[in-house]
Amino acid sequence: MGRSPCCDKIGVKKGPWTPEEDEKLLAYIQQYGHGSWRALPPKAGLQRCGKSCRLRWTNYLRPDIKRGKFSFQEEQTIIQLHALLGNRWSAIATHLPKRTDNEIKNYWNTHLKKRLAKMGIDPVTHRPKNDTLLSGDGQSKNAANLSHIAQWESARLEAEARLARQSKLSSGAGSVNSFQAQSPEFASTSSPIHKPVGPGRCLDVLKAWTSTGVWGQTSEAGAVNSGLSMRGVAGELESSTSTLSSAAGVGVRENSSAAFAGNSCDVDGGVTKEEREEEYWKYLPEQRNGIRSSFPFTSVLATESIRSSTSEHVPCGNFVEKFTDLLLSTDRHLSDDGGESDDNGSGSGGGSDYNEDNKNYWNSILNLVNSSPSGSPIF
DNA sequence: AAACTGTTCAACCGCCAGTGG
DNA sequence: CCCACTGGCGGTTGAACAGTT
Fold it and tell me: What is the DSSP secondary-structure string of A252-307?
């Protein structure tokens, strides 16, 4: 077959970018937009292939990129989303405004994956490593099935996002902030000069599940029942990742938009990151002990999913509700087993053993990970 | 101070899906 | 329907840097 390479290799520079090259690329895109990446390098006076330019722009030069250390909140979000989506970095990145998929991928590979592995948690399945011995065939199948469903769902959401972007594009004017935040290509094509991105907004898988009403649910916000329209997802969602990552652990319900609106998530609601991490340490021993016993996640949840999915081939509302509930529950988890937080126990019709058990699993992971800085005695 | 080892992260590569002629 | 092209994605690499011996 022999696909033509993205660029003729002769005369094309590779390797690290120089400041001069950066400047050229930046200046060109700011003035003209990137247009066709393939056609860009000669126009911009660069001896690079278009692919390299695109990568440099999306991973480094874009003005809305946040660099530096990942916050506590971001770590939590990555871990949770990775548990749900796997190595789908671009999908994960849409939930972390200002972070690139490449950066998230690197961070996962160099930090989070190792941390989980050292704690005896399989970073692929997010299950305790010896759990495979404990679980019977049924559980394994259920886990696989659940994973499949999660993939299906995330793919669906991505498709919706694409449709929404297209419709936004075609409809022309209007605020594009929410899409700029998550879609650099959109931002840069829609306007040569990058507009400042507003408060962090992004798609939220969990809220989408609960709010679109696609699965026959009542909208969390009350009135959203837009079917597959992205308005039900992006348009209505003000607070994005908040529900995923809000204050997991210390019972501090955060202002969700605050968690990602600014460049720093270190201080939320007057509680510093250090304070939160300190709180985590208090719970570590019992969480560590409980981690193996509290793993009914796949068995209960996946059984439910199988029952509901076999008939329609998609997860039904009941499954989604529980799955969503499970993940949403991470912001109040310690109140259940730690008892130290002043959890208001709001919403989510909790109280069932099912919910308790599932929370325990996720809480265990998050507690262990987040309460284990590199200097931790665990290591 | 030098050699060695481990870690980080920017950049590359190959593959795939979408799109338009 | 086919094919060529493009953009995007995830996995991998390797240079630079940091830490240790």
Answer: ----HHHHHHSS--SEETTEEHHHHHHHHHHHHHHHHHHTTT---IIIIIHHHHHH
Phi/psi for A354 (5° steps) reads: -55, -55
Q: What is the pLDDT of residues A56-102, one digit of tens each?
A: 999 999 888 888 888 888 888 898 899 888 889 999 998 888 899 99
Q: Is the minimum distance from the CB of A19 to strand B below 7 Å?
A: no
pLDDT tens sequence across A145-170: 555 455 555 555 555 555 544 444 44
Beta carbons within 10 angstroms of residue A373's beta carbon: 12
- Asked whether strand C has any atom less than 7 Å from the CB of A62, the reply is no
Query: Domain limits of chain A?
Result: 19-61, 72-370
User: Which nucleotides of chain C have an atom under 7 angstroms from any protein CB?
Assistant: 5-12, 15-16
Q: Which CATH number does the domain A19-61 belong to among 1.10.357, 1.10.10, 2.60.40, 2.60.120?
A: 1.10.10
Proportion of chain A in helix, strand, coil states, percent, rounded to 5: 55, 0, 40
User: Which nucleotide lies closest to A3 by the C1' atom and the CA atom?
Assistant: C4
Residue nearest to nucleotide B8 (CA to C1'): A110
Protein CA at A338 to nucleotide C1' at B21, angstroms: 64
Separation between Cα atoms, residue A119 and residue A373, nearest integer Å: 12
The residues pairing with A128 across neighbouring beta strands, listed in sequence order, are A121
> What is the distance in angstroms measured between the alpha-carbon CA of A86 and the sugar C1' of B20?
33
Tokens of A367: 């507690």
pLDDT digits (tens, 9 = 90+) for A296-328: 333 333 333 333 333 333 333 343 344 434 433
Q: Which nucleotides of B are covered by protein (CB under 7 A)?
A: 7-16, 19
